[in-house]
């Protein structure tokens, strides 16, 4: 399924959760709504509180932009609790003699796709997208961020320290100078590798993929005379970050 139209019609947070987890959460909301409609708000005030706790952040996340995903995350504890209760209710309805066993099995089915996706995307887990977005390839085609957060530069530091020529100057796109110095103090980055202000005066260039800053990658290609990276961070073959090197700077 192509994620293009979904990517522009659903909150970003929804496109990061596995479809099975979303189905469990939707079942929890429906179950709470049914209980509230049946008992009334005076008899079931807890149902109203749970629905408000889950629904208000989701509504705010759908209406806002920029930090919408962070706002929607506030609904997750309520959605998880409602989903668990709905699974227990399903277990009692479908297998009255062993309701908890069936609920555990249903819960495992709901969580398994997320676990598999997390293992596949490790260590760049925040670059993973759900089936609704078409995975990482579908999200990239839809123009969604390839990495919502995280530190892809840290994933390339071991290779840089092992293979960069002595005294190489490195341009770290999207990485604060303080973060580079922290990795140096930790002994992860070689002490002889220097900071460069731009690709024009660099021997190595780290590029964190951002569609709105592709001109900076073009600067690397022009300065280095190549479009071929020497290392990269990928999720499902989708590039998240790339490392370019001048001739002789990579051993």
Walkthrough of the structure:
The protein is α/β, with parallel strands linked by helices and 251 residues long. The chain has 10 helices and 5 strands, in the order H-H-H-H-H-H-H-H-E-H-E-E-H-E-E. The chain has 2 domains: 4-141, no CATH class; 152-245. Mean pLDDT is 81; it is low at 1-9. Helix 2 (19-39) packs across helix 3 (45-63), helix 2 (19-39) packs antiparallel against helix 6 (99-121) and helix 3 crosses helix 5.
Q: How is the topology of this model organized?
A:
Blueprint: H1 4-7, H2 19-39, H3 45-63, H4 68-72, H5 76-94, H6 99-121, H7 135-141, H8 152-163, E1 169-172, H9 177-185, E2 194-195, E3 204-208, H10 214-224, E4 231-235, E5 238-245
Parallel strand pairs: 1-2, 1-3
Antiparallel strand pairs: 3-5, 4-5
Short descriptors:
251 residues, 2 domains, 5-stranded mixed sheet, 10 helices, 5 strands, 52% helix
Kindly report the spatial arrangement of strands forming the biggest sheet. 2-1-3-5-4
Counting helices, strands and paired strands, the structural category is alpha/beta
- Percent range of helical residues: 40-55%
Tell me the distance between the termini: 42 Å
Number of strands: 5
Strand fraction equals: 5-15%
What does the radius of gyration come to?
23 Å
Helix tally equals 10
Largest sheet data: 5 strands, mixed
Average pLDDT, rounded to a whole number, is 81
Q: Low-confidence runs (pLDDT<50, min 5 residues)?
A: 1-9
Principal-axis shape: elongated
Secondary-structure element order, as H and E?
Answer: HHHHHHHHEHEEHEE
The figure for the number of domains is 2
């Amino acid at each position: 399924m192509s994620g293009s139209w979904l990517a522009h019609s659903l909150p970003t947070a929804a496109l990061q959760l596995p479809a099975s987890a979303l189905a469990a959460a939707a079942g929890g909301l429906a179950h709470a709504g049914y209980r509230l409609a049946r008992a009334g708000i005076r008899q079931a005030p807890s149902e109203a509180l749970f629905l408000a706790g889950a629904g208000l952040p989701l509504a705010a996340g759908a209406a806002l932009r920029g930090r919408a995903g962070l706002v929607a995350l506030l609904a997750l504890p309520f959605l998880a609790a409602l989903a668990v209760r709905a699974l227990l209710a399903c277990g009692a309805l479908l297998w009255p003699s062993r309701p908890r066993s069936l609920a555990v099995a249903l819960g495992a089915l709901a969580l398994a796709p997320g676990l598999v996706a997390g293992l596949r995307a490790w260590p760049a887990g925040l670059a993973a997208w759900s089936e609704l977005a078409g995975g990482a390839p579908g999200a990239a085609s839809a123009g969604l961020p390839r990495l919502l957060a995280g530190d892809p530069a840290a994933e390339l530091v071991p290779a840089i320290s092992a293979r960069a020529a002595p005294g190489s100057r490195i341009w770290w796109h999207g990485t604060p100078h303080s973060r580079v110095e922290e990795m140096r103090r930790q002994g992860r980055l070689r002490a002889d590798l220097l900071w460069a202000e731009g690709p024009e005066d660099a021997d190595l260039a780290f590029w964190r993929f951002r569609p709105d800053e592709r001109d900076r990658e073009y600067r690397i290609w022009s300065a280095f005379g190549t479009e071929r990276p020497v290392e990269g961070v990928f999720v499902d073959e989708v590039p998240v970050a790339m490392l370019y090197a001048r001739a002789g700077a990579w051993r």
